[in-house]
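User: Teach me something about this protein's shape.
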Amino acid sequence: MVKAIESLRAANREEEQLLGQIDPQRLPRHVAVIMDGNGRWAQRRHLPRIAGHRAGVKAAREIIETSARMKISALTLYAFSVENWRRPKTEVDFLMRLLREYLRKELPVIHRNNIRLLVIGRPEQLPEAVNRDIEHAMRTTAGNTGMKLVVALNYGARAELVDAFNRILEHIRHNGLSHAHVDEQTISDHLYTAGLPDPDLLIRTSGEMRISNFLLWQIAYAEIYVTETLWPDFHRARFFEALIDFQKRDRRFGGLSAAAQSGEEASPEAVGASAHGRARH
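Assistant: First, the predicted structure itself:
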């Protein structure tokens, strides 16, 4: 196996078996994750919701480290949405403190592992102390050349599109243009994620079958993997299962599969069975 996989050491027999099924040459360049289920994880254990958020941080740490060692180019984590402000103030305040605590503790590890931290969303609307810590972490890792760790904070995909269109309009006004041609590349260049490849794989934990206003433009052709596993329980083995499932997909981007191009069209029954099998994992 190539170095991307050799750098991982299986912790148990299950991980060893799953690693053996992963083709290191066909890993996704960009993985995006909707980290859902912290509250339910805590509720099932009769614990306060904050215990679920702390457990979720541990899961994030494991997936970040694993992705970096596998040489995945970018990992985007949906950490706090623009809708999350509707939660109780005590929970929001705790999440802000947890974010600052994470940055203080993990920044040396992130920096040492050559990971570059990026934040997308409207972080300027976060508490001033949180924003200072974010700016410090991004400056510290700005020169790193390894995996890009993209954290979506105060993020919403509709807000991102609004901001992108407003930036395009501002560019037109600033340059004294009466009109301008806007194409898909123009829009992509003004999104928060400009310069990053679109996600190849979108993972959602906790079994919910929705996108939740996350990267609506960027995931146009992403493979979607939904697992019933709650985020705090999404350990390396579950991540490996998502990668294995991704590698089984026939990514056509609107074209024909290799089998179809060679005249070996699948039967309607086979197509239906495949679609049903991919609906939820």
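Now, about its shape. Confidence is low (pLDDT under 50) at residues 266-281. The longest strand covers residues 74-81. If you'd like, I can walk through any region in more detail.
User: That's plenty for now, thanks!
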